[in-house]
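Incident review: delayed structure delivery

Summary: a single-chain prediction request sat in the queue longer than the usual turnaround. Root cause was a stuck worker, restarted by the on-call engineer. No data loss occurred. The affected request and its eventual output are reproduced below so the record is complete for anyone auditing the incident later.

Affected input:
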Amino acid sequence: MEENVEKARKANLAASAIGNAMSKTLNDMTPGFAAQYDLDEQLVTLAIAQAAVGIAATAASEATGMGADDVMVLEDRLHEVVFDAMNELLND
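Output delivered after worker restart:
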């Protein structure tokens, strides 16, 4: 059990480092996407979140052996959160 806790701790550290690297890269790219697609940076940030949903669902399914139906449910739930945030931003 202790070995699993240590592996989970290391995976969490790796996830944090990966997230930081991805965030920096995406933040650097945001102004270019904003100009290219004529969006403000908040909407580009939400578009990045939307893209990340698909990546997260695929990674989760590959790591856990999740079935296709479960992946679709997970992806739909994650997309709903992002779409709600986009709608909230656009309605302000």
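Verification: The chain is about 90% helix and 0% strand.
Action items: add queue-age alerting; document worker restart procedure.
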